[in-house]
């Protein structure tokens, strides 16, 4: 008898393309819900959290299916991030569950804060926020001790394949679904395929492009994209270099503890104080200064550090910077846009989101 998980897995593989489209459409809808009706922001974030959790579960199922099917070979190789995080998830069960727990907290923390704001006092709500940040810091330290390498965001593999290519896997027998009948003889060859000696043309994605006919194109420009890099031949779990020096460890620890320090100072100090923002920004700068400079061949580490540098833009939405600079600018834009036919939609969207940044910590949390 087939298990419920087996039936759901079979249905998911048959409808993955439609499911992916539905997830994308609902996720886009969550951007326009705030301000539409009472508690619309809670409904929006609850929907977004549910979609993220369901997507994480679907990605886990699809990864199992593709790994056990020997005939499945993706046309586009997995990204370095996916290779690294999947290798560690398969290699170490503690890494897998710590990473999943960390993502579960990240997906649901804003919904929990909104619920607590409606049910309990402000003091209790901030205590819960501090507890969540302490749990996240603990899980990140656990992951850091396991991999002994810089932390990646997110710590779980991302979906980097085309769901439209997966329905072909639905015909693969699943170990969770019992076969309905066993055939005693191999299936007969269809008549239109018998004595077929004409080969089909190769797929364009599976063939190498023809050499350039333009003699002015340098040979190096043609061969360089086809050359293997060091990341292509490294084992997946070794795509990041191990932290070797105390300053490397200190840089990662400061980056991990930065959100916990920030929210702890927010709770202990006056909300108008500049100390929380200045402390978090100082830890960010010190961590950036202490961290090592990866070589050009360390593509995965360089991309992670570049993401951290881009995230510093979020400081414009925090503390006194938000109060004295960013919010007045956004409100002026909303007032100006409200008088323009096409920009009025963006102005209304800004007006709906500005109060949420004032009321909830996790909209702009580090």
TrEMBL record:
Residues 172-186 have a biased composition (Low complexity). Residues 199-212 have a biased composition (Pro residues). It is found in: Peroxisome membrane. GO terms for biological process: peroxisome organization. It comes from the Eukaryota. GO terms for cellular component: peroxisomal membrane. Residues 164-219 are annotated as: Disordered. Its main location: membrane. Keywords: Peroxisome, Peroxisome biogenesis. Belongs to the peroxin-16 family. This is Peroxisomal membrane protein PEX16. It comes from Mycena pura.
